[in-house]
Amino acid sequence: MKLAPPQILVLGFAAVIIIGTLLLMLPVSSVSGEHLNFMDALFTATSAACVTGLAVVDTGTYFTGFGQSVVLVLIQIGGLGFMTMATLFALVLKRRISLRDRLILQEAMNQSSMEGIVRLIRKVLIYSLVIEAAGAILLSVRFAFDMPLPRALYYGLFHAVSMFNNAGFDLFGGHDNSLTAYVGDPVINLVVMFLIISGGIGFIVMSDLAEFRRKRRLTLHSKVVLSMTFGLILTGMAVIFIFEFTNPRTLGPLNLGSKIWASLFQSVAPRTAGANTLDITGLRQATQFFIVILMFIGASPGSTGGGVKTTTFTLMVGAVISMLRGRGDIVLFRYRLAQERVFKALTITLLALLLIVTVSMMLSTTEGLPFLMILFETTSAFANVGLSLGLTPELTQLGKILICLTMFAGRLGLLTLAYALGPKQGKPLYKYPEGKMIIG
User: Fold this and answer.
1) Per-residue buried b or exposed e for 357-379, using 16+ beta carbons within 10 Å of the residue's own CB
2) Distances in whole angstroms, Cα of residue 179 to Cα of each of 133, 172, 176, 192, 429
3) What is the mean pLDDT of residues 261-277?
4) Cβ-based neighbours of 349, under 8 Å, separated by 6 or more
5) What is the C-alpha to C-alpha distance for residues 318 and 314, in angstroms, rounded to an integer?
6) 47-61, 93-107, 310-324, 352-366: which has the minimum mean pLDDT?
């Protein structure tokens, strides 16, 4: 029986997670030399492969260099996609990329056609390698002022890969520490934010920007992604700065410069990296809920991030504006959007809301903790963010399973998962008569 591309993607990701789980269970993976239990190993492998960053054990103190390397490889495979990595080996070995492989790559990269798909994969690999290498060098130089050079080089590489792939895993010890020691450090803030944004805008936009000098124009997709990305970053920065300005647990004790850096960083990170320079548990509830909204929107299509994506959010906002203005079409940058795109955006948004609400209700029953904490954790898992209010290490076994499934669904995409379970049907050959009903 031949499997459809969505089914191959689902099974491929599942296989990567299982292999990672078995490797993390080996005694050589833990500092104590003991076996990590299956559930915790599965959770860690899922979080790494789905580039989320939620952790039930501390990555920096629990795992050995081997265990951390396993996590890092899972992050790289999960961020770029296992089919992208398989294509890399095929290109190195000079193997021909078959039509079936191209179909799977088309599904993995969320492309509308196979045209130029292998060329795009080459660009993905080159951009990733160059950006991660540059980030690793800059971070290593900065870390070298605080730690021995070999450790600084290792930390620079690990965090560059983690942040570019929007994973949020770190080695600084403690579930909530992350980059809090560098809250006002311009170098760490700028480099990490650049890595997060680069991974989050998507490889299609990166390719468009790289060819801008030659073409002298951007596609509609790139214009929407870039404008919405920076619009959300500036809005998030302003909201966090205002809400937390006097909070003694976050921005209150910082000087003005550090407050600006922290607000900007914490606006970038929820989309969808999971790093933090502020204590997330110390944020006011209004700010925490606002971060839930940022996490839900997430990164952009064809990126290393999750969420419903910036383009989906833009389409939904555009539909509302068009309806309020009495227009029949959604127009963005002088382009009219097809109705099919609106239906797809609506489907993704409603499925995401349904998943988050359902999992949150179930966790409210199994965990018995404040609902905002549960909603925050669930949205973080779905959007593959990794920010946490401290719930993850305290999850019950059932809670861990629910969060694992949520991370898996969020990384693969709800439509891909739906098509894998029940492949989409062709267009019907007839139409029903139009009906009328009252709305609103």
Assistant:
1) eebbeebbebbebeeebbbbbbb
2) 20, 8, 9, 10, 57
3) 92
4) 308, 312, 316
5) 6
6) 93-107
Reported residue count of the chain is 440
Phi and psi, residue 331, nearest 5°: -120, 125
- Cα within 13 Å of Cα(298), Cβ side: 32
pLDDT beyond 90 at 37: yes
Alpha helical stretches, state H, 53-148: 59-62, 65-80, 82-92, 99-108, 117-143
Task: Collapse the DSSP code of 330 into the 3-class scheme (helix H, G, I; strand E, B; otherwise coil) and give the result.
Answer: strand
Nearest to 379 by CA among 406, 404, 397, 400: 406
Q: How far apart are CA 158 and CA 170, in angstroms?
A: 8
Tokens of 285: 């509830």
Contact 292, 398 (CB under 8 A): no
Query: What's CA 62's distance to the chain center, in Å?
Result: 24
Are 55 and 403 within 8 A, CB to CB? no
CA distance 2 to 225: 36
Q: What is the largest CA-CA distance in the chain?
A: 73
Q: Is 336 helix (H, G, I), strand (E, B) or coil?
A: strand
- At residue 92, the pLDDT reads 56
Q: Hey, how many other C-beta atoms are within 10 angstroms of the C-beta on 181?
A: 12
What pTM was estimated for this model as a whole? 0.91
1 pLDDT band (50/70/90 cuts)? low
Domain boundaries in the chain? Answer: 5-418
Distance CA 195, CA 191 (A): 6
Which of 356, 376, 360, 304 has the alpha carbon at shortest distance from 110?
304
d(C-alpha 223, C-alpha 203), whole Å? 14
Counting runs of H as helices and runs of E as strands, what totals does the chain give? 19, 2
pLDDT in the model for residue 417? 74
User: In angstroms, what CA-CA distances link 49 with 44, 45, 171, 304, 383?
Assistant: 9, 6, 17, 11, 13
- Render the burial of 52-91: b for 16+ CB within 10 Å, e for the rest: bbbbbbbbbebbbeebbebbbbbbbbbbbbbbbbbbbebe
Contacts of 189 (CB under 8 A, 6+ apart): 182, 261, 264, 265, 277
